Fold:
Amino acid sequence: MGSNNLFIETEQVLALSDLEDKLQATEELYQRWMLEKLSTESITTPQPIEQAGHPEKPDLVPPRKLKRRRLGSPEGHASMLHAIAHIEFNAINLALDAVYRFRDMPLEYYADWIRIADEERYHFQLVRKRLNQLGYEYGDFPSHNGLWEAAEMSASDPLLRMALVPRVLEARGLDVNPKIMQKLSSIGDKQSVDILEIILRDEVGHVKAGTKWFHYLCQQRKLDPEQTFRELVSEYMLYAIRGPFYLPGRVKAGFSESELDFLQSVDGNSAV
Structure:
């Protein structure tokens, strides 16, 4: 820290692996940005993408090796919250990388993704605190690395990143959040439901930011955004399209009717 350059300081925060250091540094980076203390002059070249800094735990394993746990047990309850915490932690790194990797974007782009990184930090801390109340800690359960693998897949192009990460993977979070809230409510965990309501509200805004910058980049390149979205999803991420879809949240996040029709035709499940 101390360079007063957004890209240099974001790279430093991305590299941090100590959990407490990373959370604090993410919050401080956002505060410094808000105080207009950081330059967006690109005085370095983005390095090839590598694994972002993360704590030693949780162990990262292939998704097929993750155990399915019943929500009715204390361990299953904590495991579900741990999975949410892991998504939020990865989302910090994804937002930071969206700032660091893609240069020559408008100031508003960096303002959006620095803010989103800090909101993901806040979400993580909310879920982690709830985990602690249940007697568990982040890292107690193995997790997968799928979100960061999507960052690697889309490292070459901000248009690809905006299409695949916010508009596919993070939008998937909009779809599953209401059902998770119902499950947690069924076991009387109102505290966790309240946290997920905050996350759902904010995540609509995060996906909407992805839509905004996807459209911006399509306009810059004279591409049709709806056709381009269909093509990129079909080429890279058909495996990730699963319903049912939370249509109210997706509409607020900027999905067009034809995009929603496309997603539902790919999945074949009903919407919610």
